[in-house]
UniProtKB/TrEMBL annotation:
Family per similarity comment: Belongs to the prokaryotic molybdopterin-containing oxidoreductase family.
Domain 4Fe-4S Mo/W bis-MGD-type, chain residue ranges per copy: 10-68
Record Gene3D superfamilies: 2.40.40.20, 3.40.50.740, ADC-like domains, Dimethylsulfoxide Reductase, domain 2, Formate dehydrogenase/DMSO reductase
Name this protein carries in UniProt: Anaerobic selenocysteine-containing dehydrogenase
Record lineage: Bacteria, Pseudomonadati, Pseudomonadota, Alphaproteobacteria, Hyphomicrobiales
Cofactor section: Mo-bis(molybdopterin guanine dinucleotide)
One Pfam short name: Molybdop_Fe4S4
Keyword annotations from UniProtKB, A to Z: Iron, Iron-sulfur, Metal-binding, Molybdenum, Oxidoreductase
Family matches, as InterPro entries: Asp_de-COase-like_dom_sf, MoPterin_dinucl-bd_dom, Mopterin_OxRdtase, Mopterin_OxRdtase_4Fe-4S_dom, Mopterin_OxRdtase_prok_CS, Prok_Mopterin_Oxidored, YoaE_C
Keyword Repeat recorded: no
Length: 706
């Protein structure tokens, strides 16, 4: 008797976007009868996503079924970077990785192995399990400084914790200030709620940035200032608030530490003073201060971009302080929001193996990977070399600063590197072994959205290719080969880990999330708006931050101490010129902004994203181009002490004279000489707790002669 296979029907799956974006959008995914992913949409029933997602994620099937996706483990043949590979079986590849780690450990100690990862997936299980292996084996620690440190540090210096008004309150605000983030390109949901307020309430949208980007084009008031001068604008606006009676003195007397000291400090921070620093006109500064000063329900949406300078933490704290001077926190639709990362309370101790942590193990800075791999003694904490690495969820040869040092380090013949990836990235091209990784719809995970307020389940929706494995699988298999698989936290499935995290955190169990899809963790209005006091011991907002002793979300270990020029940080909000100021030799300031169709180095492999972005270009003001004899499409040279880059010129009024903007983290190989924009960016630590100043570079510019 023949038994017919049951007929499969198309269905709808529910998950969350895994990528390194604060929105963490809730997704509805069409699943075909053949078990493939079709259309991807924003979940309309999630109150933050509200049915809207970015175009690059909407076409995710293009990435999932890309013909160049890695499908089998590969072993290098010949010299590093030559591009010759041979297939290798999974077990053999994992055996070789374990053997290389044991060899490095025998020669130099356990710290010679450096597991390196980041936010290629924001799923807790698939991202953070590598830490459990690290701690169990006493491998070198990983200080993840590259993205959030300056922003988070500046924010908590004022509030004491990383939370704020419900970001959905933008829809009921009367003025939304989008400060230092190109939300149209990078956080489309911010615009969903801001535009709703404009349509329904007549709200004004203010955009503050360093060039005329797509978000600026949505502004009722757009302020284009010089890179790294945001604190000057904030200080002048606070000066005007005190001068013209917009400052809420009664609110500050109750909720702030030293409003009288701040007012005295701001006496000299006039609009004229700020105009000379920011490049804005006095009228622009006065107009901005008057708008937010007379609009009680002003919502300051503070992004990451303006903090990626060497004074970034100071800039964040200054912008945040403006909301406190105005008393904006008191009102629904008012206050200042950056991230809700502290509201979720998810206990990852078992997942990350924190019980195994040895405080004597050195901590290496992610942003200084080039210095680490090229033997810089300070970067290595004056200990031995890194001799072996496992890399998951990141592409440092493309995304890390000081690119020439990074590549030089990866080309060391004595360095063993295994990369677990979805595509043959430029980091994978320099590896000894490359393992194919699952994508987010092919494994189970759980997410939380720092830019919103939900914990979201990301269940496995489709089967991965037979030869592709998840991050968790690799960690578990290496643990077996390295002799730590019997430790607590190992031997669990992704679903087990999700269950354990939820139980340890006092959250509903997995069955709740399977039924409801997400959990809204937004605190009550009084807590979110700090009406019960700010999160410092005395309940006061800090106009006078203690830059070194205040707890911070990603503070380096005490044995590292503070990082960067901490002594230069101000007592009160102020403009601090620890940035790379233009000089006679380097008369331009270069900002490396995100592109709409890429996300870091992700999506730079998909045909549609590449076609929409075109090619690597640098934006140049017409006045600068004319003075240097540069025409549209010309090849120009940019340079500083870190390197030189050739790139095509785009002449545009979008940037002001003296400012250059290169959008998009293009692959290095997409550039004319095989070196990407990060050949020009620095890896020096940003005060007080480290970070990478990607948007803070002084350069020279000239027309290329050949």
């Amino acid at each position: 008797m023949n038994i017919m296979n049951p007929i499969r029907k198309s269905s709808l799956g529910h998950t969350a976007c895994p990528h390194d974006c604060p929105s963490t959008c809730a997704l509805d995914v069409d699943l075909t009868a053949e078990g493939r992913v079709g259309r991807v949409r924003g979940a309309a029933d999630n109150s933050y996503t509200a049915g809207v997602i970015c175009a690059k994620v909407a076409r995710y099937a293009e990435r999932l079924y890309h013909p160049d996706r890695l499908m089998k483990p590969m072993k290098r043949k010949g010299a590093k970077g030559e591009g010759a590979w041979q297939e290798i079986a999974w077990d053999a590849a994992l055996d070789e990785i374990a053997e290389a780690f044991l060899k490095a450990e025998a020669a130099h100690g356990s710290e010679a192995v450096w597991p390196y990862f980041y936010a290629g997936t924001m799923g807790l299980v698939q991202r953070d399990s590598i830490e459990r292996l690290r701690h169990a084996k006493r491998y070198s620690g990983f200080f993840g400084s590259i993205c959030t440190n300056t922003a988070w540090t500046g924010y908590v210096m004022g509030t004491g914790t990383l939370r704020g008004p419900d970001p959905r309150e933008m829809a009921v605000s009367d003025c939304i200030v989008i400060w230092g983030t190109n939300a149209v390109a990078t956080q489309v949901n911010v615009m969903t709620h801001a535009v709703k307020a404009r349509k329904e309430r007549g709200a004004r949208i203010v955009v503050i940035d360093v060039y005329d980007n797509p978000t600026m084009k949505q502004a009722d008031l757009g302020l284009i200032l010089k890179p790294g001068t945001d604190a000057a604008l904030a200080c002048a606006a606070m000066h005007i608030a005190f001068r013209d009676g917009y400052a809420d003195r009664a609110y500050m007397a109750k909720y702030a530490d030293d409003p009288a000291g701040l007012e005295a400090h701001l006496q000299t921070k006039t609009p004229e003073w700020a105009a000379g620093i920011t490049g804005l006109s006095v009228e622009e500064i006065e107009t901005f201060a008057r708008l937010v000063g007379t609009t009680k329900k002003s919502f300051f949406r503070l992004g990451y971009g303006f903090t990626r300078s060497r004074n970034g933490a100071v800039s964040m704290h200054a912008a945040l302080s403006l909301a406190t001077v105005l008393g904006s926190w008191q009102y629904e639709g008012g206050g200042a929001f950056h991230s809700n990362s502290d509201i979720f309370g998810l206990n990852k101790a078992e997942l990350m193996g924190t019980a195994f942590v040895d405080p004597e193990i050195r901590m290496l800075d992610q942003s200084q990977i080039g210095r680490v791999l090229t033997g810089d003694a300070e970067a290595l904490r004056h200990r031995g070399p890194v001799a072996a690495m496992l890399i998951q969820n990141t592409n440092p040869v493309n995304v890390a600063p000081e690119q020439r040092l990074v590549k030089q380090g990866f080309l060391r013949p004595d360095l063993f590197v295994a990369v677990h990836e979805q595509f043959m990235t430029e980091t994978a091209e320099l590896a000894d072994l490359v393992l194919p990784a699952t994508m987010f719809v092919e494994h189970d995970d759980i997410y939380r959205g720092g830019g919103q307020s939900h914990i979201l389940l990301g269940p496995k929706l489709v089967e991965p290719p037979e030869t592709v494995r998840s991050n968790l699988f690799v960690i578990e298999e290496l643990a077996k080969r390295l002799g730590v698989a019997d430790r607590p936290g190992f031997g669990l499935s992704a679903r087990d880990h999700i269950e354990h995290i939820l139980a340890a955190s006092g959250r509903p169990d997995l069955s709740f999330f399977e039924a409801e899809k997400w959990l809204d963790c937004q605190p009550a209005f009084e807590e979110a708006h700090y009406l019960n006091g700010f999160a410092h011991p005395d309940g006061k907002f800090r106009f006078r931050p203690d830059w070194e002793r205040t707890p911070a979300p990603n503070k380096p270990p005490a044995r590292l101490g503070s990082l960067g020029p901490v002594s230069a940080l101000p007592v009160f909000p102020d403009q601090v010129n620890v940035i790379e100021l233009a000089d006679d030799e380097h008369p331009f300031r270069l900002v490396t902004s995100p592109a709409r169709n890429f996300l870091n180095s992700t999506f730079a492999e998909t045909k549609t994203s590449v076609a929409k972005e075109g090619r690597p270009e640098v934006m140049i003001a017409p006045q600068d181009a004319a003075r240097l004899g540069i025409a549209e499409g010309d090849i120009v040279r940019l340079g500083n002490r870190r390197g030189v880059l050739r790139i095509h010129a785009r002449i545009t009024e979008a940037v002001k004279p003296g400012v250059l903007v290169a959008e998009g983290l293009w692959p290095n190989k997409a550039h004319l000489d095989g070196e990407g924009i990060n050949v020009l960016t620095g890896g020096d630590a940003v005060a007080p707790h480290g970070g990478a100043a990607f948007h803070d570079n002084k350069v020279w510019l000239e027309k290329a002669t050949a």
